[in-house]
Amino acid sequence: MQPEKQTSSKGLTIGLALLFGAAGASMTSDLENFWFGALLGALLAQIFHLRGRVQSLDQQLQSLRTRVEYPEPKPRAAEPKPEVAPAPPPSPVVVAAQAPAEQVTSAVQPSVVQPTPSTPPPPRERAAPLPPPEPSAIDRLVGEFISWLKRGNPMARIGIVILFFGASFLAKYAAENSLFPIELRFVAIAIGAFALLIVGWRLREKRPVYSEVLQGGGIAGLYLTVYAATRFDLLPTGLAFGLMVVIALAAAILAVGQNALSLAVIGTAGGFLAPIMVSTGSGNYIALFSYYAVLNLGVFAVAWFRTWKVLNLLGFLFTFTITGLWRFNGYETDDLLAADAFLILFFLMYVGVSILNCVRQPPDLKGYVSGSLVFGLPVVAFGLHASMVSHIEYAMAWSAFALGAFYLALGWVLHQTRRESFRLLVEAFAALGVIFASLAIPLAFDTRTTAAMWAVEGAGLLWLGVRQDRKLARAFGALLQIAAGLGYLIGMHYRNADDVPILNSTLLGAVMLSISAICSAYWLFRNQARQARYESGADAVFTFWGVGWWLLGGLREIEMYFPDAAYGAALSFVALTIALLAWLSLKREWRLPLLIATYLPPLAALFALTGAVNSGHPFAWWGAVGWVLLFVAHFAMLRLGESRDVHGLNWLHAGAAWVFTLIVAWEASYQIAELTTGVWALLPWGVVPALVVAWLGRQQLSPRWPVAAREQAYRIYGAIPAVVATALWILVINLSSTGDSTWLPYLPLLNPLDISVALCFAALAMWWSALSDEQRATCWQFDSRVLLAIVAGLVFIWLNAALIRTLHHNFGAPITFYGMKHSTLVQASLSIFWGLLGFAAMTLAARQRWRYVWIVGVVLMIVVVAKLVVIDLRNLGAVGKIASYLTVGALLVVTGYLAPLPPRKVNEQVTE
């Protein structure tokens, strides 16, 4: 196999280096810029070459990988059979005598099995190779340019480009330095151009590609000569215009007659470059645009006979690029009429070119060139036009409307011809007509009205796309609704002084956005069987989009016009939304609105609780009514969800219990704080969760639905946060509150705080005792002794706090940390109390044989002894020391007698 011949990049490198070098030198006529441009062109050529090599090597690698993974099965050759002479059959006597010996031999030696030819397994089916990814628009454009450059004679083409630049430099240099009479200079250029034309024409049959290049260079030279002579007042304008028309027609005839795209491209490019190369900065745009109109006439003439997309795109880019540069550098307000007339002329010419292309063949609007011309032309032309008329009131709105009407009318006229080749172009013109007609709306109205009209228009287009199975119409309808939403957000903060509630552009715009989006979502949902791959999930997106606009519009309207009842009205509006979504889901057999309605209440409750921080309590501003309606809607959706197989209902039931507990505790605390002072306002934060825990800790739960029917949800998921909240409240309230009962006398353990704490402990015990072993394992997965230690710690803190509060209210003991540390009464009382607790724990543990409880009592006694030595000995007075030491010492003696260490097992003897 001959090795693959690698393509050389030498020609491409030299050509692009010369081309870019000449372009760089044309800017400043500097040699350094020439070398810089040449280097850039060479690097670009190497990039193109390496890119092609990488693609080739990648294809070879994929081919080899396929061969290795899926080899072709080789045909199996038949094995030759050895020729053996037939042996005479043995006699029966010999066979009978030899049989035992053969049997013994076969039992000792392994038998030799001759391989039998078998049918080869069928070859595995090769996996179909994945199709290569489609190249991007830029890759296609670069590929077309490189392929055009490499076809035929690239060196000749590059040479013509270099000659054109050289002639331009020569003409400009000669004009600036007055080397020759100016007439002689232009005659010489014209003679050179005619020479190229004549030589190229004579070689049209022998060397067609080379001939096209030479003729293109000649045409470009003639364009340059006539235009430059006109700029230097050597030719009258009328004569020059006539000559350029003749050159354009001649170039078109030559290109069409010889079917020479190269000739047309080179000649046209040279014609467009000529004014740039010989520009003197005089600003005579009339001459420039007249000249370009003639060139575009040539492009139009060629399009009448040939569908050369490259030529069309080349003329389009040159025309509107140069026009745009002049608009932002040399345009003045007085030039509006003439400049706009030329702009409209250029626009109509290239619309005609698009139509002529379709006459000969269907336009490939997915391709880069046709799509750029059809869709890029109105964007560029309208942008330039708008920049010139923006100072005139409503001029842009009328212009957009006129352009939209033009495209719609043109599309209708082409549709009436019933030509199949016009089908895609009619759809494109219709889309452009709708786009520019839609653009006229925001240019004439405020953003909110614009958003409403765009949204309705987009929904209509999407419905039409679903009915007619048009992907482009569906996509444009969706994009139009998204643009409407963005426009609404821009103008949402502006408010007119004469706006009235409900009937104003703010609310109506949001409602129209919402209805349009939800209708679009339903149509896309019903069209799932025919949807494109990129449309997957679009129905869900538009559903959320519509619900979001509905909520945004309604809540903002409530905030603007009903501030005194905003909280309750917002919750009621959410409840109404939930009901509407449920109705829509049941009416249309559409599951997604039902899911949104089911999961919306928890989200609304979260935002509502956040908003209640600003209002002070959850029932402010008619909040009670709103919360009731929200809970009714929530439980109605939970009931409906059970028959619709909605997931996560247990957590939604539990969440309702959490929110109910929080808002009742919050509101009760707020209302009590409004009536009295002291500890009373803090009690609901512990009592309310404790009551919920007690309610969920009964043996028989009620009501039957939802609590009893969802026992796991309420007894476990719903109760655990309330249990944690109750335990934390016990800890915090005992560490931070003095237990002031204001208008009631303070009684030890019979005051409101201690009674509430006792109630909390009773509720926790009630709930824990009602749990089954499996439920307890679900709630607490650690060692049970850790749980007992936590409960014992909470009880210890409560009793100590109760003792200190009693000393404070009845004996005037300090309640601050510093005061308690230096108070003889407090420290002595704590020492005695801790000793009593240790004594009680050890005595009870010894009788019940609770070894670990006894150890806890011992630890507490050790702490008491350490406290006596470290704290009480230095800080207490004589009476305090005596009382503490005597009491604790007596307790230790009695404990040692009454409460020995329990044994590890029941049958062990207790050591005295």
TrEMBL record:
The chain crosses the membrane at residues 34-50, 155-174, 186-203, 210-229, 235-254, 261-279, 285-305, 310-330, 336-356, 368-388, 394-413, 425-445, 451-466, 473-490, 502-525, 537-553, 565-585, 592-613, 619-637, 649-666, 678-696, 716-735, 784-804, 824-845, 852-870, 882-899. Residues 66-82 have a biased composition (Basic and acidic residues). Residues 83-92 have a biased composition (Pro residues). It comes from the Bacteria. Residues 106-116 have a biased composition (Low complexity). Keywords: Membrane, Transmembrane, Transmembrane helix. The keyword Membrane applies. Residues 66-92, 106-134 are annotated as: Disordered. The keyword Transmembrane applies. This is Membrane protein. It comes from Steroidobacter agaridevorans. The lineage of its organism: Bacteria, Pseudomonadati, Pseudomonadota, Gammaproteobacteria, Steroidobacterales.
